[in-house]
Hints:
Elements: E1 5-10, H1 19-27, E2 36-40, H2 43-51, E3 56-61, E4 68-69, E5 75-76, H3 78-92
Amino acid sequence: MSENTITVTQTRSSIGEKPKARGTLRALGLGKIGNTNTLPDRPEIRGMIARIPHLIAIDADGPQGSDKANESGEAVPAAVADVVEQVADDKES
Length: 93
């Protein structure tokens, strides 16, 4: 059985970001605009993605729900979009 994967691409610079955001980019294997990395779809990875959605574009492979659009109009898989929305709701509470 094949494991689902998430492909993340850095779309914005980390200049001006806090050190935790820059560290999260590095932990995802990104460092320059345009870099892409394929990662396993695990809760730890989703948590990192949820911290920096404004710096990356996300593409999930495998059986996922329908896609939603993020603020920039890019399609985001429903599973990843749900995690990002849940983190945003928790921050507002």
